[in-house]
Specification:
The protein is of the alpha/beta class and about 210 residues long. The chain is built from eight helices and five strands, in the order ααβαβαβααααββ. α5 packs across α6 and α6 packs across α7. Bound molecules: zinc ion. The site of zinc ion (ZN) has 7 residues, from α5.
Length: about 210
C-alpha cells in the first residue's frame, strides 16, 4: 500500500482496501494522540496539481466531526459531503457519483457519529410529536425512516440504534440507487462502507 499520503500522483491506483486502511490507520493515530504535523498552508494546497482524493465521505455537519482530523489526513485527500444527519440527498448522491466517475475515488464512506443532534431531533419528533420550525422538517423526514426501523426492534438505546440504522440505510441507498456506483462496486473498483465516529473515544468503528 502506498504509505506516503502526499504522493497524490499515486492515489488513483489505490485500491478500496488501501484507502480504507489509510483512514483506519489514521484514526488509530488520532485515538493514540500520535498524529504528526500536517501542512495545510495555501502554498501546500496550491502545489497539489491533481484533485485525487482517496475517499469521499458523507458525514454530519456537526462541527465536532472533522474528518481530516479524526482520520489524520492531509489537505486535498478527502472529498467531503456534509449535512446534518449525514443522509443521502440527491445532491449528495450526485457528488458521490462525480467522485467515482471523474475522480476515480475508490472508497465511499457514510460516517455517522454518537450524540448526533439531528438524529436526536428526529427521535423527539417521532416519540413526542415535537413540531420544529422552518425547513427543519426536511432533515427529520430524511432521518425518520431510520428511527422507525430502529425503534421496531426495541433497542436499549434508541439514539445509538437509530444512528447506526441511519448509516446503514444511507449505505444501502448508495449501493443500490446509483447505476454508476453499482457498476463500479460490482467490479471491485469502488467500495461503500458505513462507520460511526465515537465522540467519547475518538474511535471510528466500521459497521458490518
Ligand atoms: Zn450529527
Amino acid at each position: 500500500m502506498p504509505n506516503n499520503p502526499s504522493d497524490r500522483q499515486a492515489q488513483v491506483s489505490f485500491t478500496p482496501d488501501d484507502a480504507l486502511a489509510m483512514l483506519m490507520e489514521g484514526n488509530c493515530r488520532y485515538v493514540d494522540e500520535s498524529i504528526g504535523p500536517r501542512n495545510y498552508s495555501a502554498r501546500e494546497i496550491a502545489s497539489t496539481k491533481e484533485h485525487a482524493p482517496v475517499a469521499a465521505i458523507l458525514a454530519c455537519g456537526d462541527a465536532r466531526v472533522g474528518a481530516e482530523l479524526i482520520f489524520d489526513r492531509g489537505p486535498c485527500e478527502l472529498f467531503m459531503v456534509r449535512l446534518a444527519g449525514n443522509f443521502l440527498s440527491d445532491y449528495g448522491l450526485a457528488s458521490m457519483e462525480y467522485c467515482v466517475e471523474f475522480l476515480n475515488v475508490p472508497l465511499l464512506m457514510v460516517l455517522g457519529h454518537t450524540h448526533c443532534g439531528a438524529v436526536s431531533a428526529a427521535i423527539r419528533v417521532v416519540e413526542n410529536k415535537e413540531d420544529l420550525p422552518g425547513r427543519l422538517f426536511v432533515l427529520i423526514d430524511a432521518i425518520e425512516p431510520s428511527v422507525l426501523r430502529a425503534r421496531a426492534s426495541n433497542p436499549e438505546d434508541l439514539l445509538v440504534a437509530a444512528t447506526e440504522e441511519n448509516v446503514r440505510r444511507q449505505v444501502r441507498r448508495l449501493r443500490t440507487i446509483s447505476p454508476i456506483i453499482n457498476a463500479t462496486q460490482a467490479t471491485g473498483r469502488v467500495m461503500v462502507v458505513g462507520a460511526i465516529y465515537d465522540m467519547d473515544t475518538g474511535a471510528v468503528n466500521l459497521l458490518g
